[in-house]
Design goal:
Structural class: mainly alpha
CATH superfamily of one domain: Tetratricopeptide repeat domain
Number of helices: 16
CATH class of one domain: Mainly Alpha
Radius of gyration: 19 Å
Number of strands: 0
Largest sheet: none
């Protein structure tokens, strides 16, 4: 992703009036934030790139889709985002990213789960070899509570490329939601390796999780996850929402809300826009602070899904 940003910038330097290069740069920034290659702050030039692309060419669908995602994830302006996504699809119904961004940037945050999955399926049909799109179809099934379909989709994505790190992270999340902690730990270990941790670091991390699970059960597992993510936060960008999620899953509501506030202040994007539908936040349902946060972001209060394993 860093290399793609560099190449798009070289393209712009060679031809400052070439609109598709700005649209590509906007996509590169947006996706870099989604996969944690950049923080939301570091990825903020993406919005300027999308705006510049549209100044040069109002009919560029990819630029409208990229701008819509920025409006959704970082400005929480879902109405404006919806308009950009719909314009993008009208301009180019064959844009896989337009369907992907519409699904994850508007439909799913609004709790329109069936419609979001339909858009994701269109994106996969248009770009069936995209690891990113296949992965997010799996995540859409998670958010809809269909864990069996999610598991199958993640397995399919892993089969396409076993070294794609993001899918292992999402598979680990799913297995934890399913209560399959013994199976989740190897996925956590694999994720750490693929994201650049040494074999020793990854092995030790997994060993601590196994030990915590054995000695303290599920509560011990989450206590160790919190400790590991707090340690990672000292050396990595962002991550407030990850720690908030750990605390929510551990049943530590006060700490979850404390870290959610930090995440909102940092405009951490996708994970916040999915706050109403992600089952990882189910422990917060019913707390007045949860509804207040949703309203501040502009999200509806959605009935939590009853998952199907």
């Amino acid at each position: 992703m860093h290399k793609s940003i560099d190449l798009f910038q070289q393209s712009i330097a060679a031809d400052p009036n070439f609109a598709p290069a700005y649209a590509g740069l906007a996509d590169a920034y947006n996706i870099s934030i989604i996969i944690s290659a950049l923080s939301s702050k570091e990825g903020s030039p993406g919005a300027r790139a999308a705006t510049k692309a549209l100044e040069l060419d109002q009919t560029l669908a990819d630029a409208r889709a990229a701008l819509g995602l920025e409006m959704s994830h970082y400005e929480f302006d879902f109405s404006a985002a919806k308009g950009e996504f719909e314009k993008a699809i009208q301009l180019n119904p064959n844009s896989a990213y337009a369907h992907l961004f519409f699904s994850g940037g508007y439909l799913m945050p609004m709790g329109l789960r069936a419609e979001a999955i339909a858009e994701m399926k269109k994106a996969v049909e248009l770009d069936p070899l995209s690891l990113l799109i296949n992965n997010f179809l799996g995540e859409s099934y998670v958010l809809a509570g269909d864990y069996a379909a999610a598991y199958q989709q993640f397995q399919q994505t892993i089969a396409m490329d076993p070294n794609f790190p993001l899918v292992h992270a999402y598979m680990a999340d799913l297995l934890e939601l399913m209560g399959r902690f013994d199976d989740a730990i190897p996925e956590r270990e694999r994720t750490a390796l693929l994201f650049g941790k040494s074999e020793q670091e990854s092995t030790e991390m997994a060993a601590r999780l196994r030990s915590a699970l054995k000695s303290g059960g599920v509560a011990g597992f989450w206590k160790e996850r919190v400790a590991q993510d707090l340690h990672a936060k000292q050396t990595s960008r962002g991550g407030f929402v990850v720690i908030a999620r750990d605390y929510a899953l551990a049943g530590e509501r006060d700490l979850a809300f404390e870290w959610l506030e930090k995440s909102i202040e940092a405009r951490e994007g996708q994970d916040l826009t999915l706050l109403a539908v992600d089952p990882m936040w189910n422990n917060l349902h019913g707390d007045p602070r949860y509804g207040s946060l949703l309203r501040r972001i502009g999200l509806p209060e959605v009935v939590p899904v009853q998952h199907q394993n």
